[in-house]
């Protein structure tokens, strides 16, 4: 099923992100964890991709497996850093053959192990979007950054570039994680003013361990509001309480988004079905409204 036909309906939906195994020896263990998230039967599942193609076979295997076993639509991430157009066409053919109908088109970041020229054939995700549209048959999404992508000088420049991605054929956007909903509302207002009218799906990351915070800030550059820092300080010494507090915080963010008119929320569930399931259960009546 095409994601573009799932988003935008007048009903709250939750989708989850899972990651594929990095090595073949981990395949069964990581697959079981990702399948545990799929068993919750969210609106759809996105499956990440190792920039430079390091997980390409496993991304596809997990996405195909989820669709076949659980009947849940998937969106396969695809990065273009270091890729040739031929290799992208091959990936798209493999996806089509596997029954995948949705692609999240990403630039990616140069992996440490990659020693070639990273931006030879593709410089930006918008160029990948153009190749996917040219290939045909996929619903195409892209990433966006409420707290500004680190390579951009400022928000205005970032949004001008985002518009190029949407003009190339990107049908919906998923945001980088954020922990203060006002950042998202402000971003969407600016995006709409710039003439971008596709759905902007908020990405919510439940923080259930203090140790996740440093990595999250390093990877995303997003700010932690005082309210959240206080919660972490209060509960970080007790694993079970910290997990519960993180789930409640993420649930409250989703509730506030829905109360403010947002219909589709993407949860960075990190292959943890207990966290994904708890958030789903917290919202079960609203999800079945
Ligand atoms: P782009 O849209 O190309 O933007 C990158 C930078 O270039 C921005 O600063 C933008 O403003 C600028 N830019 C864009 N177009 C132009 C232009 N025409 N002229 C000048 N500047 C321009 N990474 C992975 O490796 N695997 C994943 O599975 C993955 N999934 C992700 C999912 C989501 C929802 C998000 C938010 C990020 C994900 N990432 C993933 C991380 C992503 O690859 C990085 O953030 C990367 O640095 C940027 O990718 P992009 O697709 O947003 O790039």
Task: Please give a handful of descriptors for the protein shown.
TIM Barrel; 15% strand; globular; FAD-linked_oxidoreductase-like; methionine biosynthesis
Question: Layout of SSEs?
Answer:
Elements: E1 13-18, H1 27-38, E2 44-47, H2 56-70, E3 73-79, H3 85-97, E4 102-106, H4 125-135, E5 139-144, H5 155-167, E6 172-177, H6 181-193, E7 200-204, H7 211-220, H8 226-235, H9 239-259, E8 264-267, H10 273-282, H11 284-287
Helix pairs in contact: 1-2, 1-10, 3-4, 4-5, 8-9, 9-10
Bound molecules: flavin-adenine dinucleotide.
Flavin-adenine dinucleotide is lined by residues 48-49, 51, 77, 79, 106-109, 124-126, 143, 149, 151-152, 158, 161, 164-165, 174, 176, 203.
Distance between the termini: 22 Å
Helical fraction equals 40-55%
Major sheet details: 8 strands, parallel, barrel
Number of helical regions = 11
CATH fold-level topology: TIM Barrel
Tell me the name of the CATH class.
Alpha Beta
Number of domains: 1
Would you list the SSEs in sequence order as H and E? EHEHEHEHEHEHEHHHEHH
- Label the overall shape: globular
Estimate what percentage of residues fall within beta strands. Answer: 5-15%
Mean pLDDT: 96
The CATH architecture is: Alpha-Beta Barrel
Structural class: alpha/beta
Unreliable spans are none
- Oligomeric status: single chain
Number of strands: 8
Backbone CA Rg: 18 Å
**Strands in their spatial order, largest beta sheet:** 1-2-3-4-5-6-7-8
Enzyme class: oxidoreductase
Catalytic activity: (6S)-5-methyl-5,6,7,8-tetrahydrofolate + NAD(+) = (6R)-5,10-methylene-5,6,7,8-tetrahydrofolate + NADH + H(+)
Organism: Lachnospira hominis
EC number: 1.5.1.54
């Amino acid at each position: 099923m095409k994601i573009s036909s799932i988003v935008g309906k007048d009903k709250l939906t939750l989708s989850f992100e899972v990651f594929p195994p990095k090595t073949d020896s981990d395949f069964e263990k990581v697959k079981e964890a990702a399948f545990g998230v799929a068993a919750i039967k969210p609106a759809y599942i996105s499956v990440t991709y190792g920039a430079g193609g390091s997980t390409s076979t496993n991304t596809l295997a997990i996405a195909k497996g989820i669709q076949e076993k659980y009947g849940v639509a998937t969106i396969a991430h695809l990065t273009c850093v270091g890729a040739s157009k031929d290799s992208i066409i091959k990936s798209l053919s493999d996806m089509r053959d596997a029954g995948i109908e949705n692609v999240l088109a990403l630039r990616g970041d140069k992996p440490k192990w990659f020693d070639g020229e990273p931006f030879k054939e593709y410089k930006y995700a918008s160029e990948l979007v153009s190749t996917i549209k040219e290939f045909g048959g996929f619903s195409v999404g892209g990433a966006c950054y409420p707290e500004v992508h680190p390579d951009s000088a400022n928000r205005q420049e970032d949004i001008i570039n985002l518009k190029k991605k949407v003009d190339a054929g990107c049908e919906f956007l998923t945001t980088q994680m954020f922990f203060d909903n006002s950042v998202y509302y402000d971003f969407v207002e600016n995006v709409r003013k710039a003439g971008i009218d596709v759905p902007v799906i908020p990405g919510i990351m439940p923080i259930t361990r203090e140790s996740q915070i440093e990595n999250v800030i390093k990877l995303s550059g997003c700010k932690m509001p005082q309210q959240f820092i206080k919660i972490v300080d209060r509960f970080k010494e007790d694993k079970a309480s910290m997990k519960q507090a993180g789930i409640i915080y993420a649930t409250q963010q989703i509730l506030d988004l829905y109360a403010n008119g947002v219909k589709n929320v993407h949860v960075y569930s990190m292959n943890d079905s207990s966290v994904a399931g708890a958030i789903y259960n917290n919202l079960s009546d609203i999800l079945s409204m």
